[in-house]
Specification:
The chain is mainly α. It is built from 10 helices and no strands. About 70% of the residues lie in helices and about 0% in strands. The model has no long low-confidence stretch (mean pLDDT about 85).
Length: about 200
């Protein structure tokens, strides 16, 4: 029972913090305000998170999560299948869904601002978005190479080349929305990126 209660409290903290970060910005959303919003003492909040940066990074990790973060076996199975391209489509689709999630849009904007001002957040972002995703993608591309699906190359470079345009598309959507411009034209670009990328790495 205590574990369930702790988990629930932690989730409530994250949900309240997400709303406050989006409404007030990172600097103005203090630990005291987050704790008050949850209905717990400020000291109790520290039982779950080290500080405000820790809370923010937990939220950031959810914003940049990938479809197979916790299922390495599924990733390998898809990579070995007769349609490994399907894995890349699933990966890109997850980014697309998050990109067009308006509830997380303000948080993404805030994150982009804070990255230039806070080294701890920069380090955390690089780990959560870049390092973790590369560690997921590189072995998948290596498996595809072993199975003869894609041409032999550096799997780390291949992973980076696949990931970078997805981040750019997400940033592009955010920039357009800041000026209330239409983003419809970008909706299909995630799938087009996968198709274009696959044509460049596939065997035969």
């Amino acid at each position: 029972m205590p574990q369930n209660r702790d988990k629930t409290t932690k989730q409530r903290i994250l949900e309240s913090a997400m709303k406050l970060f989006a409404e007030l910005g990172y600097k103005n959303a203090s630990v005291r305000k987050i704790a008050k919003s949850v209905g717990i003492r400020e000291s109790a909040l520290y039982n779950h998170f080290k500080n405000k940066e820790d809370i923010f990074l937990h939220i950031a990790s959810e914003i940049f999560t990938t479809p197979f973060n916790h299922d390495e076996n599924m990733s390998t199975t898809i990579a070995k299948s007769n349609n490994p391209k399907a894995y890349l489509h699933k990966f890109a689709t997850e980014f697309k869904l998050i990109t067009f999630d308006k509830n997380k849009e303000n948080l993404f904007r805030i994150m982009m601002i804070e990255l230039f001002q806070n080294k701890n957040l920069r380090d955390g972002f690089l780990n959560e978005f870049h390092n973790k995703n590369i560690k997921i993608l590189a072995p998948i591309f290596f498996t595809m190479m072993q199975e003869g699906h894609v041409r032999s190359s550096d799997p780390m470079v291949m992973a980076q080349e696949f990931l970078a345009p997805l981040f750019y598309l997400r940033l592009h959507v955010t920039l357009l929305r800041i000026d209330s411009q239409a983003t419809t034209a970008l909706s299909s670009q995630f799938e087009k990126h996968v198709d274009f990328f696959w044509e460049g790495i596939k065997v035969g």
